[in-house]
Amino acid sequence: MIPAISCVSALLTLGQGDGKSPMPSPWVEPGYMKLVWIQSPNCGPRPEGVVVDTIVIHSTVIPTLEATTRAFQRESSQVSAHYTIGKDGSIVQNVSTFDRAWHAGVSKDVRGKENLNHFSVGIELVNLNDGKDPYPAAQMDALKAIIVVLKRRFPIVQIASHEYIAQPYGRKSDPTNFPWDEFKQFGLPLYFGKPK
Ligand SMILES: [Zn+2]
Q1: For a tag site, which of 57, 67, 100, 111 has the least CB within 10 Å?
Q2: Looking at the domain covering 9-191, what would its CATH class be?
């Protein structure tokens, strides 16, 4: 059983920040399977008529959910994702899935389609990406719940690692040592490692 996201109660914390950013102050992790939306300025419209059909999985390298959220708040970072998932299964939404987040960079998928930011949803997992840092069950629960939601909303045809789609190959290695076997249950092609 994949647990359901226990909704958007944490949205109520929006607007109670320090006046300089939309982040709640003091920062509190949303909690297992709870979602808070903290909008990143690093986003834009998707190209007209684009079909969102791909999920890209990342590791943050940044060690905490708070620090990742703050990085996505900084315009100078020029990066964002649609969702970031903490190790305890806390979820921060950074960008609407109907908009284009900036997570993939120069990229190409197995079909030869370039610029995955146009047509993918980017999900970041808080993980050092050192090959040793684990992906706890709570974090995987939240990721699976998001995939269930995305499959209902969009005609998803593939899940890919950032490593697989980043151009040139070797530019990215995330998510390292990710438990791909657990994601076969979705019946979607999984692309990770080195493209053939
Ligand atoms: Zn990445």
Answers
A1: 111
A2: alpha beta
